[in-house]
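Q: Second attempt. The first request was missing the SMILES, so the protein and NAP are both included now.
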Amino acid sequence: MESKTESKSSGEPIDTVCMACNDSKCDFTAQKFQRRPVGDYDVQIKMKYSGICHSDIHKAAGHLDKLGKPLYPCVPGHELAGVCVAVGSKVTKIKEGMHIGVGCMVDSCLSCVQCKAGQEQKCKKTNTATYCGKNKHGRAESYPPGRETIGGYTTMHVVHEHFAIVIPQTYPLEHAGPVMCAGITMYDPLKAHGAAGKRVGIIGLGGLGIMGIKIAQALGCAVTAISRGPTKKDIALKSGATTYIDSKVEDEMKAGAKSLDLILNTIPVKHDYMYYEQLLDTDGKLVLLGLFEGMFAAFLTGGGKRVVASGIGGIPNTQEIIDLCDKHKIYPETKIIPASKINWAYQQLATNISDALRYVIDVENTLKEDVKCDDPAPDLGPPVSISWMKFISESTKFMFGFR
Ligand SMILES: NC(=O)c1ccc[n+]([C@@H]2O[C@H](COP(=O)([O-])OP(=O)(O)OC[C@H]3O[C@@H](n4cnc5c(N)ncnc54)[C@H](OP(=O)(O)O)[C@@H]3O)[C@@H](O)[C@H]2O)c1
Ligand SMILES: [Zn+2]
Ligand SMILES: [Zn+2]
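A: Got both inputs this time. The predicted holo structure:
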């Protein structure tokens, strides 16, 4: 993995229309932007679809201090799927016409131990996020230079080839976006914790959770779906779960006591995650994936404790999971929406009405210059913040394993 940093080009900047919000109210409208000209190692993608991850809401609303506040206008989106329409002169991995995905990162140093091990998400010098990221390593310049990266709710994207994921031609493009975040975020901890063949629980049956069930089942796990009511039972079983626990029913929780080796928790709000610990067998692990005040401290424990955290996954594993999804015909449960429905989708996710679906924007057919949302700005509630003192106190609890 050489450091291909000099992505120089004398070409023209590329016009793109994006769905952007101008402040933390997250009221989306179409706005015009430009992307950098295609550099030597860059790939230009004509966008077809873009998934909406719950993280887009956390970030665009400035809800979590640990994620940093965005500079507005903000264009979220890190579940991109489109077609390559141009490549730079030194690109070797991608050809025009190939289906391309982009996930949560568009750059990292590519020279530290983590990057060399294909763990770019853990880059020692930090990766550059697909949206609201800074061009620290030279491969993720925005246009005009200096502004934060703009994400996937966009008609055109330009990315360094290293961070472009090849979507197999046989994989339906409308399903591919969510694999770039939801898919890899679930696959990475399943792989890291050696879940194949083990008893795995998935908490929270939204975009991540349903993908988690499907991927875990394909890996040969016995999957238990854990949800806050009975309504998602059918979709959970259809997706590959063999056991369903309604976490609000004490008897069901008791019946599942010590039945799991690994639990992936995707709940996106502050909650008592130790409530689910009763489901873990001796030496089992609870992995926090949902972002909420306090969970960031769990990253400090590495893999050694009973409660750990996990964040997205590297480029090789992202390629691996889209290939695996293609091989096993694993498709996320999606609802394709027009760009004018982004406010509506945010409201659905923020009020946790989530229908166990990933909302995916039909970029190609509906993202046009004059689009406004049909619905008012979503009601996202007050910003959540965590002080450094509280962060240190949370971290201490994780380190020493007491809650
Ligand atoms: N760690 C990472 O790298 C990473 C990557 C991507 C996303 N994320 C984070 O993962 C979380 C989930 O993302 P997503 O896109 O899957 O969100 P989502 O589609 O909104 O799904 C979240 C699910 O969590 C459950 N839930 C919601 N509110 C809850 C509450 N108050 N108490 C208990 N359970 C609740 C719901 O499932 P039930 O109805 O079944 O209970 C809901 O469907 C978000 O915080 C997102 O930012 C993290
Ligand atoms: Zn995401
Ligand atoms: Zn690095």
